[in-house]
Every structure is written in structure tokens, then in C-alpha cells.
Amino acid sequence: MSVHTGVALELDDIQRGVLSPRPTPYAATYLVFRIDDPDHGRELMRRASSAVTSAADAVSPLGETWVSVAVTCQGLAVLGVPRASLETFAWEFRQGMAARARALGDVGVSSPEHWEAPLGGRDVHVVLTAVAPGPAQLEAAVDRARPAYDGLSGVTAVWRQDCYALPTETEHFGYRDGVSHPAVEGSGITGSNRLEVPLKAGEFVLGYPDELGGVQRPHPTELGRNGSYAVFRKLHQDVAAFRRYLKDNSTGPQDEELIAAKIMGRWRSGAPLALAPQADDPALGADPDRRNTFLYESDDPTGFKTPGGCHIRRANPRDAAVAGEVRLHRMIRRGAVYGPPLPEGVLEDDGADRGLMFAFIGAHPGRQFEFVQSQWMNDGVFFGADDAKDPVTGAHDGSTGFTVPRRPVRRRLAPLPRFVVTRGGEYCFLPSLTALRRLGGLHE
After folding, report:
1. Where is the segment annotated Disordered (predicted)?
2. Whole-angstrom Cα distance, residue 362 to residue 219?
């Protein structure tokens, strides 16, 4: 790995949504647009450059509220970006998420033919995301962005997904969400794990050195520099099936919570097994300064505290010895809950659509999101578990279970059904504010 030196990020040119953790609590909305008239699309980009808050604005006009604008590869083409320029962007981004479905485990009920229209299709050109501490501030953010697309007959809103924070500050399976955020050199934002050396800026922002010393440079420079790639995914959660699995594999309520913790790697309060292996510690789970400050290799290499196959250890193995250098596969992850909660104790599905809007931010879609999704989440070879998949989000078919390391005999749980189904998504580019203005001036 490269030696870490200071870097001066051009924060006033980077969209705030790239680096800032979401507020707690939060409300969010995703708006998808199709560009029918390239001139109107370019006008949308010009207007958006004024609506978007930069990472340098520690306090935006609306407080902990911001708007982000992302563009798909097809959107860039419609706006008039030349093919020669498009070919300098990441090839996964150029292919689009639907074309990458099999590699991502989006098969069967998660395959693109079952996705919500227009997700994964040719009509997804621009994704506008607004994030705020609550519904009132969110509507204010949307109102602030509305002039960017109002009155443009050649730009059509084709999809919207509203998200919010549950009163419990958890996602639908009941776990505290939004616990982990990496430290990025030059961002001015403290990471959630004080034991982690800040990652190179080029892992997340284009135009800066990454962990290998390389620099991703889509051309021309003013289009690519200070931008990032974003992965958006709508993930439906089968909460009733998850609850039944825990109940059917436990000896009682206390054991049920232990299994839930072993599957996730954290108690539902957010307290990690690495720091609270015997019992839940809600005070720890609620403390952002402590709940993510831990490593694995020094005192738990075999996973007796935190199983190697649990969700959080797969998603971020930290210092554990695994296939691939961990620092090359880190991501900024954000989840936003959508849909009504399933009432507590209900074990049968009520037919409502509920789940997470998932977002990944990074500069390397292939070795970050796709590597983690295919190698760490949907395979188990990297930690010696053959084809075992992530117990929470893996593409299960009912053929493999989950193993809890334990002395004197390990505990094997029943085969896992699929708890999470992909409902759609796309690879996008988050342009810098300079790039938004450039996209607005194409062909002038």
C-alpha cells in the first residue's frame, strides 16, 4: 500500500452527497428523470449546478439537508458527451447494472426482468436525491431543487421513491442502521472507526491518488475530476420470512436475539459482537464514538465472537486476513428505509413493499461494489466456507445454511431462504459542480 500523505480535496467542487454521512434521523427521496430533449437536459444540468450543495458547505442554507444529481451513462450520451469521452469511464458504469446482473447475484426473482419499471432500462438518465433530517426539511429541499426541472417539457419524471427513518432508527429487520462510515483523506469528516487509517481520497473521488497510487481520470479533466460513481439499488426485505427463520432456529426469545446478532455481527441495538460478545449493550450501540471502533484479527481471528460469515464482517473484514486487500474494496455505504414497518410480532407477510434504498459511493465500481457483492457477499471461499453466502443479503436458494463457530461444537442453522430481493438499480456518475456546468454547456 502507498504511504499516506495529506491531500487537498477541492471540496467546493465536490457534491456534498459524495462524502457527507446522512443526518440522523433522516428523510430522503429519489427522483428519476428521462431526457427526451437534449437541450432541455443540458438546461437541467445548468440549473442543477446551482441547486446542488458542495462538500465545502458545512452548513447549507437548509442545514443538514442537501440535493445530489447523478447521471447514467445513457444520460451522458443523450446530453451529448462524445463516445471517445464515455469510453474513458469505468466499463461497469458503461454497461449498466442490468447487464451486470448475473455477476451481482441478481438472478431468479431478483433478475432485471422482474425489476420495477423503468429501473435498469433505457429511460433512466438522471437521478436526483434529496436528503434531510425530517419530512418538512425534505420537502423544502425538493422545493429548492424543483426549479431545476420545472418547465422543462423535454425532461420527464418517471419514478420516485420516498424514504424515511423508522422511529426506532433501525432498518426493517430491526438492526440499527448507518453505523459505519470510512475516514477519507482531505474530507474533514471523521470516520466512525478511530482505529482505521484514513483511506486515500482517490478511492472515492476521481482525479486523486488511490491506495495503489493510481489516479482515475475520465476525460476531459473538467468532466471527470472531483466526480464519483454511485450505485443505486432498491432492495425489498421479506421481514416476515426473516422473523420466522430466527424463531424456527432458536430455543427461545433470548436465543433468537443471539442468532440475530450472530447473523449480522451486531446486536440489534448496534452494539458489535466484537465489543459485546455475551450480551447486548444498548448504551454501546447508541454511542457513535465506540460502537464501530474495533478490529477482528487481534483477538478474534477464528470468529468465535464475530462469525467470519456474518454480514458486517463480510462487508468490511477490517484487518482480517481475507481474499483481496481490504483497503482496495472499501465503500461509502448508505441505506434509506422505504415502505411501512411490519407490525411487531407479525410472522406472515402483509403484501406491502418495504426495504432499503441502498447507495454506494466510490471511484472503482469493479473492485469496490462488484468485488464485494460477488466475492464477499455471494461466495464464502475468501474465509474458507466454500459457496456460503451472506446470511442477510445473499442470493440464497435454500441449499446452504449458516454456521456459528462455537466450542466445543459449532452450531449449524437451517438452510437460508432469500430475505432480500433486488427490485432495480443503476450505476451512475456524480459529476462535480464544474462538470454539471460543462454538461449544461455542451454544443453551445
Report:
1. 276-307
2. 18
Of 236, 438, 209, 434, the C-alpha closest to 338 is: 236
Amino acid present at 24: T
25: cis peptide before it, omega within 30°?
yes
Cell of 162: 420516498
The distance in angstroms from the start CA to the end CA of the chain is 44
Q: Which helix (H) or strand (E) holds 237?
A: strand 228-237
* Residue given cell 459482537 in the structure block: 273
Is-contact 9 187, C-beta < 8 A? yes
pTM of the entire predicted model = 0.94
215 phi and psi, to 5 degrees?
-130, 120
CA–CA separation, 273 and 2 (whole Å): 31
Is residue 384 predicted with pLDDT exceeding 80? no
Check pLDDT > 50 for residue 2. Answer: no
Q: How far apart are CA 97 and CA 115, in angstroms?
A: 11
Instruction: Provide the Cα torsion 231, 233, 239, 244; round to 10°.
Output: -70
Distance CA 431, CA 438 (A): 10
pLDDT tens, residue by residue, 119-168? 999 999 999 999 988 888 888 888 878 888 888 999 999 999 999 988 78
Q: Is residue 435 within 8 Å of 77, Cβ to Cβ?
A: no
Tens of pLDDT, residue by residue over 261-313, are 999 999 999 999 999 999 999 999 999 999 999 999 888 998 999 999 999 99
C-alpha to C-alpha distance for 364 and 259, rounded to whole angstroms: 34
Query: What distance in Å separates the CA atoms of residue 428 and residue 127, rounded to the nearest whole number?
Result: 8
Query: How many CA atoms are closer than 13 Å to the CA of 373, on its beta-carbon side?
Result: 22
Domain positions in the chain: 11-235+425-440, 237-359+368-423
Hey, which bits of 315-435 come out as E strands? 332-338, 355-362, 403-404, 411-412, 420-430
Note the pLDDT of residue 382: 66
What's the mean pLDDT in 395-399? 88
